[in-house]
Amino acid sequence: MSDPWRNQSVSSTRPDLEAEALAERWVGLYGDLALRTAYLFLRDRGLAEDCVQDAFISAWRARASLRDPGAERAWLMTIVANTARSHLRRRIPIPTDTTPADPTTSDPYSDLVLSADLRQALDQLPSDQREVIVLRVYLDLSVEETARALKVAEGTVKSRLSRALEALRLIWIPTTD
Fold it and tell me: Are 85 and 37 in contact (CB under 8 A)?
């Protein structure tokens, strides 16, 4: 049996069934988390869906670079976060999310436990602070994983997180609904 992590050849006559199964597994296990993560960065469902599709394609192409299958979740979410950051750098206009949700489909954003007031407070933070909160707090990545994802030193992650949390304390006034 060939190793789906190392097999990068794609034949036009015979599909790589192991790699295809791997991609389907990623979507099943991490698809909703990836959508919520991208949404936290981009604040638009359509852009988040495009971002996740781009990120999963990038991950599939780079699957041989995953050295530790136990770190698969962190590796994939790092790719999602970096893809979202890339979308932001290109400064694609971010429309407000005005499309009403289809009540017949499950909403991957429904269990995103961010109240509207917390989302507004996060939106007021500089992007570097918002990014570290998403990766470190929401995704629960370690300081080391967050530093790798952001391509900064671990000390930078700690200081950004500290500044971000302090800023949130000053601007966020929780409401009770």
Answer: no
How many CA atoms lie less than 13 Å away from 104 in the CB half-sphere? 0
CA nearest neighbour of 87 among 55, 118, 112, 134: 55
Long-range contacts of 98-103 (CB under 8 A, 24+ apart): 99/45, 99/46
Q: What tokens appear for 60 in the block?
A: 């599939």
Whole-structure pTM value = 0.63
Q: Which two tokens stand for residue 86?
A: 């890339």
Say how far apart CA 15 and CA 12 lie, in whole Å. 7
Q: Tell me the DSSP string of 16-58.
A: -HHHHHHHHHHHHHHHHHHHHHHHHHH--HHHHHHHHHHHHHH
Mean pLDDT of the chain: 78
Domains and CATH numbers, the chain: 14-97 (1.10.1740.10), 113-172 (1.10.10.10)
**What are 135-176's pLDDT values in tens digits?**
888 888 889 988 888 889 999 999 999 999 999 888 887 766
